[in-house]
Amino acid sequence: MRTEYCGLLTEAWLGKNVSLCGWVQRRRDHGGVIFIDLRDREGLVQVVCDPDNPAMFEIAESIRNEYCVQVHGAVRARPEGAENTDLISGKIEVVCQQLTVLNASATPPFQLDDDTLSETTRLTHRVLDLRRPQMQHNLKLRYRVAMEVRRYLDAHGFIDIETPMLTKSTPEGARDYLVPSRVHAGHFFALPQSPQLFKQLLMVAGFDRYYQIVKCFRDEDLRADRQPEFTQIDCETSFLNEQEIRDLFEVMIRTVFKNSIGVALAESFPVMSYAEAMRRFGSDKPDLRVKLEFTELTDVMKDVDFKVFSAPANMAAGRVAALCIPQGGQLSRGEIDGYTEFVRIYGAKGLAWIKVNEAAKGREGLQSPIVKNLHDAALAAILERTGAQDGDLIFFGADRAKIVNDSLGALRLKIGYTPFGTEKGFFEPGWQPLWVVDFPMFEYDDEAARWVACHHPFTSPKDEHLDLLATDPGRCIAKAYDMVMNGWELGGGSVRIHREEIQRKVFEALAIDADEAQQKFGFLLEALQYGAPPHGGIAFGLDRVVTMMAGADSIRDVIAFPKTQRAQCLLTQAPSEVDERQLRELHIRLRATETLKA
Amino acid sequence: MRTEYCGLLTEAWLGKNVSLCGWVQRRRDHGGVIFIDLRDREGLVQVVCDPDNPAMFEIAESIRNEYCVQVHGAVRARPEGAENTDLISGKIEVVCQQLTVLNASATPPFQLDDDTLSETTRLTHRVLDLRRPQMQHNLKLRYRVAMEVRRYLDAHGFIDIETPMLTKSTPEGARDYLVPSRVHAGHFFALPQSPQLFKQLLMVAGFDRYYQIVKCFRDEDLRADRQPEFTQIDCETSFLNEQEIRDLFEVMIRTVFKNSIGVALAESFPVMSYAEAMRRFGSDKPDLRVKLEFTELTDVMKDVDFKVFSAPANMAAGRVAALCIPQGGQLSRGEIDGYTEFVRIYGAKGLAWIKVNEAAKGREGLQSPIVKNLHDAALAAILERTGAQDGDLIFFGADRAKIVNDSLGALRLKIGYTPFGTEKGFFEPGWQPLWVVDFPMFEYDDEAARWVACHHPFTSPKDEHLDLLATDPGRCIAKAYDMVMNGWELGGGSVRIHREEIQRKVFEALAIDADEAQQKFGFLLEALQYGAPPHGGIAFGLDRVVTMMAGADSIRDVIAFPKTQRAQCLLTQAPSEVDERQLRELHIRLRATETLKA
Questions:
Q1: Which chain A residues are Cβ-neighbours of B68 within 8 angstroms?
Q2: CA dist list (Å): B277 to A594, B129, B384, B405, B462
């Protein structure tokens, strides 16, 4: 039915007859001639319908936008001056000899080129939304990325092995999606949050190198970049250490960026410890495009006569830090008030600041509501450590470290991304990948009053920290690493525990007793007894990688049929009510408060 | 840690130092020297530990089967006569200089080379079972097949687009796996039985060519070749007709067989109508390796004075057919009795037979309990149509056509697969692919008292049969096709309906009223209104394709972590009980008869 895609028809076809299939993007009547912009997934081509072929012309007159048609015709050069350099097919046009309507179209509920559509409209009419060139581009890019990943991993000895979707519920971390069993009354499968344990078992089974591009599921409250089901590039290898694993996957990401979007990433990604990232940027996924950095002030604020600073400076989990904005003196009082409001989102109670008008004048040269509260040594330390120049503005965060990091970290990005930030050179566009390494093994969960795993309970501690598992879990560092780019976590992984006795110690540190460990993870503990190899891996979020490459606003723009933030499919109306008969077969009933379908 | 895989170490490495990582397959002490067969996923290599390196030798003495070790050593030629031609590494051995135990192993619960293990043992200790070379081979083959499929489809413009796993329940066909929604009380997602509607929507959205290697789910009672979750190679294309689609995927399968297992399939697969396949073989997936065929006798048995034959011959849905076994006269009475028992499994009430001792003698030359019941014309027709020679045996089936086809079809294979069948040349080993086409659109479901779709409700009828949808659905033929090989359905597909009004007519024929159609398939009907292109596709069962290629007994042997026939994972003990808290969050409770976890 088709000689070539519309969007790929070039001068190579000049003088030849072709068949094309596609959709009517636009029909223009001009000087008695009908021009059709015919669209397929590869782009547009111009079709010319002359009235000297009346049968064909009559059909051309009848067609409307989004009709699906077939065109037979001859390729000719466009008249001089009528070329369209935006199109691959822009130098030619097709003179229509025969026109067949393959399927008519009702008038679409919106114009495909309307950029102001609400997300609800787009997701309800997703099929038409997907016809838009941007969505076609995004999903083709997604495919190209996945295929490049496969090519790279294949060339490096990784094999794709499928792991089960119907697995066991281990309520740890996020909430599971459950699937009631019909055969085993009162029992449930869980959809996998990741194939973590299965891929480790495949290493124990000797497959050496595994990967899978695989759906994972988390029943969490959704944020802009989360979906109930998301796709991981999930990888695991035996017999490589932390550094070797990072190198392998750094080259993978570099290769994929190069081959998918022609971007050459840095030859060698910077490697930064978790501690350094928190200290300098208040974040374990710092956006290095923003050149602003924190200044540590906790030590110098311990003895100031200003409780707002001294109290957190003297707390074990407290922090005082500054963010110096070069030439920030130009910010208006209104802007500063706006930022004060902004940091409240992150729990900060306020946003202290100092404008450096004339540093040489000492205290007199500083404009600020708080200067009077700080002794000379503190002021000197602020100026020296921030390196503030006349005209700069210094913001302060003082609170529990988490609040300081979150609020000042968000402020750093917010100011960096403003036109002011760009203008002053705080923001350098481009791609800024890095590795964040040396994560803590555990963080303390105040609510549960126990240590929880920062990564997951199967992550190996550093060899030299094994003793800390029992004595001081908070100081125990993990062989874990995240790949971060432009402030997004693209992937994360770790070297895993491959010795049963260490796995048991980690379970103990997490207050998982032997019975619970056996019941939940007995199969892992058993597998580790039979010569489990040293192994580790990483998982990348495909949705995120592609969203970032496509420059899309949301991961929903790189997923064909996404759910809303209320975890609904507006196209098919899933989830939906089901028959009572189905529930009965599954040995469940709805809770009394719920209505049943008749 | 490793220079090369153990199993790939060849003479190219002679004289060089290497590092190897792997598992101890076997340790032999021979003349004061310790030989280790070291195994990794690529195979074995022999490691020689001499006592003149006491530190290393002491470690060598300590190691046991399935220890995970690292070996540094030098590659040398094996002594003459000690080569092992079964191994890629069989001409060399590695003289161990340094031996490191990476992880010790408890004594495995079974020998890896034990071929008599029960399936329960194998699935309970799946990690060790997967270390067996056969399982390593099967999963590597599976990967190779999937990758070849991707390469082919990529080269032909197909793009992999992911479709949702959390979809809408449409109870039609098999039973859905349901997933309760936490956010929408009383509502459920369903896991997809196939991405059928989504791939059609992608065609309407203009993606032109789609594929996905994707998990599908059916909550059915399990048979030997079924799993609750299985993997489809799911494909769809626009703008190709039935023949073109078949050609494209025939070449794909031929390419994949060639590149994965080096098998050259027939240049052009035979194409057989459903009607012909049923007539000649009683099956829509005939195993053409078996050379026996049915003989139609319904017409000649209408007027015989033998109710067993004449009653079905005069029923609308009845059939009388024969299966002539050349030289079958050699079968013993015991064997014939055995076959009589066998066909009862398929509902046959008995198995009539005639031994042709001397055809020239007419009735006298035939040995059979039923000859006396048949008139001369019937006997003559039997001999003529079957072409039976002296010494042959003719079996008869007479019943509802389904029972005749099932029972005589099974008998045909059973006899074909016996040593007798092979010896007499009824069975020709090799690969016998074919297309079965022209399936009926509908079959009548007596229980539901309505027509149901043979393929699925989105399959297009033949253009010339559109009118039959309303007038005579039973005679309406579909644009559907199955690819069959050696008696297995490898894949099936169809040209789809791309016009809304035809889709509505098919729903009507299926007694799905407008309201129900709107509620279940409204999104499809809407999409078809906007210039849906002509499209069609096919889905192959990856598990089956690989099982067949691997010559495995069960699809469980080509799946890393399969479920049992009771839909259980013996390794992880899924499905399992869950916390009451989880159920409460999902707005469900167990039925009163079920016990709750405390």
A1: 531-533
A2: 52, 40, 21, 10, 19
Rg, Å, chain B Cα set: 30
Model confidence at A438: pLDDT above 50: yes
Chain B, nearest residue to A162 by Cα: B560
Of the candidates B255, B244, B161, the residue with the CA atom closest to the CA atom of residue B209: B161
Q: Residues 6 or more apart from B96 whose CB is under 8 A from it?
A: B36, B47, B48, B49, B50, B53, B56, B60, B71, B72, B73
- Residue B15 CA to its chain's centroid (Å): 48
One-letter amino acid of B33 = V
Q: Are A439 and A454 in contact (CB under 8 A)?
A: yes
Is B591–A589 a contact, with Cβ atoms under 8 angstroms apart? yes
Dihedral sign, Cα of residue A557, residue A559, residue A560, residue A564:
negative
Taking the Cβ of residue A107 and every Cβ of chain B, the question of whether any pair is shorter than 8 Å is answered with no
The angle that helices B542-550 and B242-261 make with each other, rounded to 10 degrees, is 40
Cβ neighbourhood burial of B376 (10 Å; 0-12, 13-18, 19+): exposed
Q: How confident is the model at residue B597 (pLDDT cuts 50, 70, 90)?
A: very low
**Closest Cα in chain A to B3:** A239
Kind of pairing between the strands at B318-325 and B393-400:
antiparallel
- B151 contact A CB<8A: no
| Residue/partner pairs of A588-592 with CB below 8 Å, 24 or more apart | A588/A180, A588/B180, A588/B588, A588/B589, A588/B590, A588/B591, A589/B588, A589/B589, A589/B590, A589/B591, A590/B185, A590/B186, A590/B587, A590/B588, A590/B589, A591/B185, A591/B584, A591/B587, A591/B588, A591/B589
pLDDT at position B598 = 39
User: pTM of the full predicted structure?
Assistant: 0.95
Joined together, the tokens standing for residue A301 give 């604020």
Cβ-Cβ pairs closer than 8 A, A with B, add up to 359
* Nearest-by-CA chain B residue for A178: B179
Question: Nearest by CB to A206, which of B136, B189, B585?
Answer: B136
Burial tier of A139 (Cβ tally within 10 Å: 0-12, 13-18, 19+): buried
Tokens (6 digits) for B574: 């899924």
Q: Which residue has the tokens 């039997």?
A: B382
If one counts every other C-beta atom within 10 angstroms of the C-beta of residue A448, the result is 9
Q: CB A572 to CB B184 under 8 A?
A: no
Which of chain B's residues have a Cβ under 8 Å away from the Cβ of A216?
Answer: none
Whether the Cβ atoms of residue A134 and residue B539 lie closer than 8 Å to each other: no
Question: What does the DSSP 8-state code read for residue B414?
Answer: H
Question: pLDDT tens digits, residue range A446-491?
Answer: 888 999 999 999 999 999 999 999 999 999 999 999 999 999 999 9
Instruction: With cut-offs at 50, 70 and 90, classify the pLDDT of residue B596.
Output: very low
For the ranges A272-276, B414-418, B521-525, B589-593, the lowest mean pLDDT is seen at: B589-593
B597 three-class SS: coil
Instruction: Tokens 């309505």: give the residue.
Output: B450
Cα–Cα distance, A219 to A78 (Å, whole number) = 55
How many other C-beta atoms can be found within 10 angstroms of the C-beta atom of residue A102? 20
B249 alpha-carbon distance from chain centroid: 17
The set of residues, in sequence order, having a beta carbon less than 8 Å from that of A235 and lying 6+ positions away, is A153, A158, A209, A210, A211, A249, A493, A537, A538, A539, A540
Contact A141/B at CB under 8 A: no
Contact A591 B571 (CB under 8 A): no
* Whole-number pLDDT of residue B22: 97
Distance from CA of A219 to the nearest CA of B (A): 8
C-alpha span between B53 and B47 (Å, rounded): 14
A332 touches B at CB < 8 Å: no
The pLDDT score that the predictor gives to residue A224 is 64
Helices (H) and strands (E) in chain B, counts: 17, 23
Substitution target in A100, A147, A153, A162 with the highest count of B β-carbons within 10 Å is A162
Task: Name the minimum distance, in Å, from the CA of B160 to any CA of chain A.
Answer: 6
